[in-house]
Amino acid sequence: MLPSLSLSPSQQQDHKFKRVTPKDSLNSGDRIFLPHSVKQITPPKHDSPLTLTAKQINFIRTLVIYKDPHILVLNKPPGMPVQGGINIKRSLDAVAAECLNYDYSEPPRLVHRLDRDCSGILVMGRTKTSTTLLHSIFRDKTSTASDDIGTKRRILQRRYWALVLGCPRRSGGLVTAPLGKVVVDNGKSDRITIVDNPTSLSSQHAITEYRVIGSSSHGYTWLELSPLTGRKHQLRVHCAEVLGTPIVGDYKYGRQAHKKWGQFDLSNLEDTTEELLKEEALPFGLNLNKGCISDKHPRLHLHCKQIVLPNISQALQNVQSLSDSTYDLSEVEALELEADLPPYMKKSWDVTNS
């Protein structure tokens, strides 16, 4: 979220500005100032519910890998946005609200995010209570990340698989590089980068554990990445800027590395999406078969392979109230969830291990 500034009447006289933090609340008379890069956008009109075909509904339901009374877990396909926005009509959360309610009167709700081109485990809450609890688990995981270093038993564990260009100097380790957002292309876009001054107000601490799963004679390396924090593009930036091994198919943070690699055609990347849509093999314009390292335009090779979290259903049976601060979620049995790689990443796995 872009930073904003608040100026109260008393502060106006002293011309002092205060950066607003998520914990701050507005008082009567406060004024909000936004950066010049923020544009006023007319909120989209909420039309009638999405109209989905039987084929689309069946496809979305095949993505469900776990369901109980309180949570729903999907294996998100790459190329499908998780949340709606400008020019996004059929995001995964909107589609799930139409066909994954099952016998509930309320739709499943997002509790965390995955990049549009990232695949893998996506957890959703089926009730307001479970959603609140899941939100706290994912949020607290980031705020207490430094305390989790070296801890054997963590409340939340996430493991991603990524295929990268090159190989890290060490077979495993910990990346603790703070991240910040910079505006590029004359304010037309932004990107995340490593912040040199970790005490800067705009920096966010970001911690990632990694280990090498396997290397190939082709020069690629499979990594297991475990983010202890949940920052935007954290894994992609840590791989590209700290480890020096950008993720295959990440042209935002590893375009130059892909050019140096020499075996990929990067001349018409924008046309690649249209090409995939023309060869639609699945609903929602998805094609999961193209994009391996043998193709001209590899897709992002980043997949949330496993998540371990407390069994929410058991936790809600044992706790009387979410405000019960004495309840220890680490005492709840762990729920281990795994998601298969998308077809194009499976092909890359076979190529690199042949």
TrEMBL record:
Record flagged with keyword Mitochondrion: yes
Subcellular location: Mitochondrion
Any one Pfam family match given in the protein's UniProt record, by short name: PseudoU_synth_2
Gene3D superfamilies, per the entry: Pseudouridine synthase (3.30.2350.10)
A single BP term in Gene Ontology: enzyme-directed rRNA pseudouridine synthesis
GO cellular component, one term: mitochondrion
The Pseudouridine synthase RsuA/RluA-like domain, residue ranges: 70-240
InterPro entries: PsdUridine_synth_cat_dom_sf, PsdUridine_synth_RsuA/RluA, RluA_PseudoU_synthase
Gene Ontology terms, MF aspect: pseudouridine synthase activity; RNA binding
Domain of life: Eukaryota
Family: Belongs to the pseudouridine synthase RluA family.
Name of this chain's protein: Pseudouridine synthase RsuA/RluA-like domain-containing protein
Source organism (scientific name): Trifolium subterraneum
